[in-house]
Amino acid sequence: MTSVSLRLELKTFIFLTISVILSHKLFRLNTKRILIVGGPGTGKSTLITDLEAKGHVCFHEISREVTAAAQKRGIEQLFLTQPLLFSELLLKGRIEQFKDAEPLNTPYAFYDRGIPDVAAYMDYTGDSYPEMFHNACYEYTYDIVFMLAPWEEIYEQDNERYESYEEAQKIQQYLTTAYEKHGYHLIDVPFGTVSERVTFILNTLKTHE
């Protein structure tokens, strides 16, 4: 093989390598983090489940996992007995969920509750918490936030959801304040069937592309 042929092959190899790298960067989707928030029993988890069934990447609420793990250790309601520990575990878990979207190559990643929820609930209970709770809200920001309002018709209490409907309404106010305080514009999702609400969310996202 002549030196000319070697140079041509080397140039071709370099060209193809650069093309693959540029193609990967150019066509890799910038995944938008979409947050679905609202007080207890507003239908967030149901919408997340439906979005997931439609093929979207979804991150589920982790507070029930934290509560269930504590109950196995004999602590019935960790949020009530050790609110700061409970909130620290939530904050850690939600930051991990946020970071888990970084390697994705999909248009959207949907979240059931977000990082500002943690500070909102602590404000609701009146418990003090470290500044890192607010710092995390500014460091890890979501692209679009949908808000679900309290809906008495579908509200149910269970072993993990101990709040009354009236308490859920108060929590809603603290959530709204927390998200607006951290610079978010909240998009209200109207009442309706699961299909109607999911359609509203997906159609709204198209207008933000």
Explain this structure:
α2 (44-53) crosses α9 and α6 (116-125) packs across α8 (165-181). Helix content is 56%, strand content 11%. It has 209 residues and is of the alpha/beta class. The protein folds into two domains: 1-29; 31-207, P-loop containing nucleotide triphosphate hydrolases (Rossmann fold, 3-Layer(aba) Sandwich). α8 links the parallel β4 (144-148) and β5. The protein has a five-stranded parallel beta sheet with strand order 2-3-1-4-5, with helices on both faces.
Indicate the overall shape.
Answer: globular
Secondary structure tally: strands: 5
Rg, rounded, reads: 22 Å
Largest sheet: 5 strands, parallel
Treating each run of at least 4 consecutive H or I residues as one helix, how many helices?
A: 9
The separation of the N and C termini measures: 52 Å
Estimate what percentage of residues fall within beta strands: 5-15%
